[in-house]
Amino acid sequence: MKISENNKRMTTQTTGWKAAFAAFLDRRALIMLFLGFSAGIPILLIFSSLSLWLGEAGIDKSAVTFFSWAALGYSFKFVWAPLIDELPVPVLTKTLGRRRAWLLIAQILIIVAISIMAFSDPALGQSYLIQMAVGAVLLGFSAATQDIVIDAYRIELAETQMQTVLAATYNAGYRIGMIVAGAGALFLAAYLGTAKGNYIYEAWKYTYLTMAAVMLVGILTTLIIREPKVDRVYKSYQRRDYFRLVLVFFVAVICFVLSYLFTGHLAEQLVSWLSIQDNILLFLIEALRFITAAAVALAVGTLLVRAGVVNKQMAKETWINPVLDFFQRYGTKLALVLLLLIGFYRISDIIAGVISNVFYQDLNFTKEQIAEAVKIYGVIFSLVGGFLGGLLAQRMNIMKLMFVGAVLASSTNLIFIGLVKSGQPLGQVQVNVGGQQYLADTDEVGYWTVKVPTEVLKNTTQFQVSTGYADAAQQSKVAVVQPYIVGDINQAHLMLLPVMGRNIISLNEPQNSIVVKGQYFGPALTDAQKIVLQLDGKPYPAKLDKTGAFSAVVETKMLTGSSTKQLQAIVTDGSRTLVNTSLAYHVAQGVGAKNELDISVEPVALVNPNDQSNIELKGKVIKPYSSLWLYFAIVVDNLASGLAGAAFIAFLSSLTSVSFTAVQYAIFSSLMTLTPKLLGGYSGTIVTHIGYPQFFLMTTLIGIPILVLVVWVAKLLKAHELKQIQTKGTGD
Predict the structure, then answer these.
(1) 122, 298, 540, 632: which could form a disulfide with 57 (CB 3.0–4.6 Å)?
(2) What domains lie within the chain, and their CATH numbers?
(3) Which residue(s) pair with 68 in the sheet?
(4) Which residues are bridge partners to 567 per DSSP?
(5) What is the signed CA dihedral for 69, 71, 72, 73, rounded to 10 degrees?
(6) CA–CA distance from 28 to each of 106, 145, 153, 664 (Å)?
């Protein structure tokens, strides 16, 4: 028995620095660089870039983070990994080979998925949001499939001694792909004019279509490279056995989806019946739904196998044997503890990472700043951390490195609390309406809410919001006036909101276009009825959402160069005008001295004078935060994450059997992200209720049990190794 085989594969020792450097110029290393680039494109199009898109479109923060669940395909790729490992693709397998055939299919599906998302404007309503969700799920599934094939291709491409080099170049390409899909996408979207408060769908559409085009790099690489030559013995099953296996898999997946949807209706009824508001209980209900659906899918799959729908021996070799091998090598107790560590080791940084871009946006950093700090410096220092982790993995015990990585990955989240505190404290927000004054405190990022009786609001049609720094002079105060509509919901009401917040546009405004917003209340519009903005006779179609808010994009030069300086909003029915309104604005000759503070106010719902309830007035005070803190937090966090990730990959490699490399690694890597991503889907909800400082403190404290688990696993592995040595000695 070769008891040290796995330990040997944890590190790669070369004869010298020259040989080590030369290995990185090997053709196979370059192949993995380009394949890594292809693998790095999709992930951020599901996470960070998508979260910013949805945030700009006005989608609720909780819904934004729920989109992270679209990437659960990465966490369940072990389910279909055996199929990809064994199942030949008609025509393509004979033409390209087993690995390249599946790789090409996955890459084409990635392009299709990104295109579906590109043609989905979430601001237009639920149907478009669902379409985007479908595209995101398909993207997660196809990207995970690509990862499975690339991992298998890498393992089969070179000998064990070369695997570290291939993994390093793959990771470098992966990070470059992330820069393109992260920083590149944000820079391009910003260049095309979209921003928070200035949402332009077309900018995001062309950004995502560009990312789809970038995937052609992966397709060209797949077509150019050669299929790896391996002495692997493929199973001699008939084609119908493979089709039956796929059938069982899809039936199980369908059962999972249907069960999850069905239990969703039951969960909604239960929550409504019991009036459940507690987020922990809501999470437990969602977790129970997920577990129930998974159990149903497993039960259906098992019944189909036992019923003889699929070759039993084939099913066992596909799904059962890789798992049995792991438990046989380590024993039930140690195997379960190892799986527990794998599932929770990265929980601190992954949960925090899901909400990170929304967090930076809430701190009023621009997409350009986020792109530069997170997608460039962050990725660079993540690579540095990974390289450092690789070096340390060759110099110290892997479990000690795992402990260091866990400490760093969780403790660095405390730095983000410092970033929140870098903003100067605000004074109370004053809301003056109808001769009454209301005061509200802001949260740590500037959000405020006040409740005003309808009795007060119905006597006027506008209110003033003002605030300043807590310990600053009176001249630091900033104020805005927000109009609203008072009237009967059964009648049509139309209003344009102040352009740029104050009806003043700078002659040197840097934005190429400006989003003009307004509100419509009244009878629902038919398909023939539209809202159109007009400036000097030129029409600009407006988009109406379900809350009654509408918006239209107008070129800045048209606004500043207008002879009338007056906008009109018209509700049309064919050639007939149903209701209209107008708004005059001003053009300033220069930018002038800009106050550090600003106030954004959310549009107010229609005020019904006959209603006796309170109406929420809410908005956000926009204040600066330290950019130095931002860069420091990003650099340190990514350095720690890269080191912890390198240690963890080395650890996973040490657990993988050479007989089931692709499948077992897929299981481990899937489990690694499953729990964090499930919990990460609730990060937005958690932040909403406890705030950012408490959230980052929570993610740090979560890391403490992980440290205990690492120490426990280290002791169990040492005992297991000693037992193997004794067994081998006795056998000899």
Answers:
(1) 122
(2) 23-236+319-373+665-707 (1.20.1250.20), 238-310 (no CATH), 429-622 (2.60.40.10)
(3) none
(4) 535, 583
(5) 150
(6) 21, 21, 11, 23
Give how far Cα 638 sits from Cα of 220, 331, 350, 505, 681, Å.
31, 35, 12, 40, 21
Reference 186, options 366, 377, 381; nearest CA is 366
| H/E element, 136 | helix 126-157
Helix (H) / strand (E) containing 39:
helix 27-46
List the structure tokens of 568.
């009109």
Span 677-731, pLDDT tens digits: 666 666 777 787 888 899 899 989 988 999 999 999 999 998 888 888 877 666 5
Tens of pLDDT, residues 326-353: 999 999 999 999 999 998 888 888 788 7
Structure confidence at residue 277 (pLDDT):
67
In this prediction the pTM is 0.70
What gap in Å lies between CA 566 and CA 534, rounded to an integer? 9
Cβ(372)–Cβ(634) under 8 Å? no
What token pair was written down for 651? 């650890």
- Whole-angstrom Cα distance, residue 132 to residue 113? 9
Closest CA to 108 of 216, 226, 183, 236: 216
Alpha-carbon span 117 to 128, nearest angstrom: 9
Taking a C-beta distance cutoff of 8 angstroms, is the pair 145, 109 a contact? yes
Q: Which two tokens stand for residue 141?
A: 């599934």
Burial of residue 23 (number of CB atoms within 10 Å: 0-12, 13-18, 19+): buried
Enumerate residues 6+ apart whose C-beta is below 8 A from 143: 39, 42, 43, 46, 71, 73, 74, 106, 110
CA 464 to CA 429: how far, in whole Å?
Answer: 10
Amino acid at 444: E
Which two three-digit tokens encode residue 421?
């505190």
Contact 582, 566 (CB under 8 A): yes
Q: Is the pLDDT of residue 553 over 90?
A: no
Instruction: Give the pLDDT band (50/70/90) at residue 225.
Output: very high
Q: Are 420 and 692 in contact (CB under 8 A)?
A: yes
The strand pairing partners of 569, in sequence order, are 533, 581
Contacts of 501 (CB under 8 A, 6+ apart): 480, 598, 599, 600
Q: How confident is the model at residue 1 (pLDDT cuts 50, 70, 90)?
A: very low
* SS3 state of residue 651: helix
User: pLDDT digits over 121-166, tens only?
Assistant: 888 877 788 888 888 888 988 998 998 888 878 777 876 556 656 7
Separation between Cα atoms, residue 648 and residue 713, nearest integer Å? 13
For 89, the 3-state DSSP assignment is: coil
Residue 512 DSSP code? S
How does pLDDT run across 603-639, given as a tens digit for each residue? 898 898 888 888 999 999 999 999 899 999 989 988 8
At 538, list the tokens. 């030129």
* C-alpha triplet 4, 8, 14: angle, nearest 5°: 150
Closest CA to 102 of 54, 44, 142, 49: 142
The Cα 255–Cα 267 span in angstroms is: 18
Q: What is the pLDDT of residue 375?
A: 67
Question: Pairing relation of β-strands 478-483 and 462-467?
Answer: antiparallel
Contact criterion met (CB below 8 Å) for 213 and 222? no
pLDDT value at 266 more than 70: yes
Q: Buried (b) or exposed (e) across 240-270, using 16+ Cβ within 10 A?
A: ebbebbeebbeebbebbeebbeebeeebeee
Beta bridge partners of 87: none
Q: How confident is the model at residue 272 (pLDDT cuts 50, 70, 90)?
A: confident
Copy the structure tokens of residue 288: 């129970």
* Cα distance between residue 21 and residue 650, in whole Å: 20
Q: Measured between alpha carbons, how far is 347 from 352 in angstroms, rounded to an integer?
A: 8
